[in-house]
Amino acid sequence: MSKVYFASARIKKWKYADSMPGKLERLFKEVNLSTYFEKDEWVAVKTHFGSEGAHRIVRPVFLRKVVDALKGIDAKPFVTDTVRIKGLAYLEVANQNGINHLSVGAPVVLADGLYGNDNIMVKAGEIIGEIAVASLIYDVPAMVVCSHIKGHIQAGYAGAIKNVAMGGISSSHRHCGWKCGRGAMHTIGEGKLIWDEEKCELCLQCEEICPLEVIKFENEQFTYREADCWRCGRCARVCPEGALTLPGDDERFMKALAETAKAVLSTFKPNKVIYINFLTEIQPECDCMPAADVPVIQDQGILISDDIVAIEQAAIDMLLKAKPLPQSAASELGEKTDNILYDLSKKPYLIQIEEAGRLGLGSRQYELIEI
Hints:
By secondary structure, the protein is α/β, with parallel strands linked by helices. 30% of the residues lie in helices and 20% in strands.
């Protein structure tokens, strides 16, 4: 049975040791980072930089504590993510959201290069076949995965598995494009966008949200550069009338997440990756969107484990016990909901956890140790 360490977000004593940053420091002492990481070893601190307008990410103060803890055992940490928009723009978004070398105390770099196509193909399984793992993540010997727990329009629940799977690979490959990258998980078949002219009100939200600027309306007709599209699905997500759709399969997507997470983690030796789940500012949507809604569930705290399946199950168990926050998207569900993230997205998110367990990434059985 795997151990999952937990620090509650509730503060009952007004002293630093009981603050969230203070509790994170105490969690590191319980976990003993030196059992995972060696002196002078490069360690990737994998997080999500957020988006312009989406500020509810893992806050820089927590990333700084992770970096400081790694430096405390003489490891060499750096903070990283993969390209989600154009590389230089993404680094500026990180800076706007408070993530830079001064705030986190370590270099902040893009794992797949400025163009998002610096990657290495890795075998991934029956659904995906091969996937383009970011070269920096492929090469680095160790990693701390810092995940902001939240909802997700496709995954339903987004935590460590989603962070490793979708965040550890590139959006595209320089030769086989989206079919070897993140887009392979998003779609089925050819993954072509479908536009319904009759439903379209020409609000142009899809054009505005496209990170690659591949969507255009010419003479009130929808067009996009299919070869350049990453299949991220943001355009379909924001369409208020459902005039734009990107074909997908929920079960396949969830299983593909687990399969791709396994591919990314296969590039590390045993006991070289630990996971930190931040159950804070739990909003209904991914941090890659251009805005952040108010939290739908009250802050729960911080979880740490070396078992990706156990920590995900522990996080979900906590969320299932939570009540919807007033004046949020969850409050519109009413008090009867007992599965907030599912009721918001209607996505069978547990499949990703079950599949990760089936693939041998960890155990859903865990011992929760609260400090």
